Amino acid sequence: MIEDALVIVPAFNEAAVIGDTLAELKKIAGKVLVIDDGSKDDTGDQAKNSGAEVLRHSANLGYGAALKTGFSYGLRYSKMSYFLAFDADGQHDPAFLESLLAPLRKGQADYVIGSRFLEQDTSAAPVSRKVGSKIFSLATSALIKEKITDPTSGMIALTRGVARVFASKFFPLDFPDADVLIMLSRMGFQIKEVPVRMRPAKRPGSMHSGLLKPAYYLAKISLSMVHFALRRDLKEKRREIESVY
Predict the structure, then answer these.
(1) Could you give the domains of the chain?
(2) Cα angle vertex 171, ends 169, 173, to 5°?
(3) Which of 66, 128, 136, 145 is deepest in the core (most CB within 10 A)?
(4) Residues 6+ apart with CB under 8 A from 71
(5) Are 25 and 7 in contact (CB under 8 A)?
């Protein structure tokens, strides 16, 4: 049982699947916090009935905003040493959470990514998404001078130090992704990947579905990556953030 990490589960209209997700997750994690990001269904009630602590946004603010709420709450009200992000739709396998935490516990990393592609690509992601991930992988690896195979993975583990940055104005409120890795690297944090397997989501659709959302995502992430790559003050900004907490 994981007792040293707070598991944060962003959720938007996941009432049909979140009960099963939490039932599986609670067998491994002692503390689970669900952020109901303005759902129009009874996601929050289903999460409470499953034994999770629930915070609710009055409106849908975005995936990044939900994570930021979780990190901010955890820093203020929890003494957990680490944080884990876990998707509500069932595609993440909780069996890999211990693997994500291991490098943090050993002091080998500050931020750990669960990579679908580190050993063998067994994910069920669409080909277009795999191609996009590969492009961002190459760009991110070049910019931080470290091989990153899955910069778009949402299965992550992090220290309280990284959580402080994510609770600040530097954390994107919509799609935190490859740009965040560049920011953390420029701030001096150590990043590591561990292999994980992803499963098909238990419900159709994703936050990247449609035409406009993917186009916005690609443009936004690309510009944000360039922005953080060009900044030279991020280590100083890290010190400023650390002085607040």
Answers:
(1) 5-244 (3.90.550.10)
(2) 100
(3) 66
(4) 8, 83, 163, 166, 167, 171
(5) yes
Q: What length does the chain have?
A: 245
DSSP-derived 3-state class of residue 35 = strand
| Chain-centre distance for alpha carbon 94 | 14
CA separation for the pair 125, 74 (Å, rounded): 31
User: For residue 111, what are the β-bridge partners?
Assistant: 158, 191
Contact 216/164 with Cβ under 8 angstroms? no
- Which DSSP category does 18 fall into? H
User: For residue range 23-36, what is the model confidence (pLDDT) as tens digits?
Assistant: 999 999 999 999 99
- Please identify every stretch of the chain with a pLDDT value under 50, giving residue numbers as ranges: none
pLDDT in tens, 90-113: 999 999 999 999 999 999 999 999
Give burial (CB, 10 Å; 0-12/13-18/19+) of 67: buried
Q: Is the pTM of this model over 0.70?
A: yes
Report the C-alpha gap between 53 and 17 in whole angstroms.
Answer: 17
Tally DSSP H helices, then E strands, for the chain: 9, 7
Which pLDDT score, from 0 to 100, does residue 210 have?
57
Report the DSSP beta bridge partners of residue 35: 10, 55
**In the block, residue with structure tokens 């999770």:** 52
Pairing of strands 156-159, 191-195: unpaired
Backbone torsion region of residue 210, taken as left when φ is above 0, otherwise alpha when ψ lies between -120 and 50, otherwise beta: left
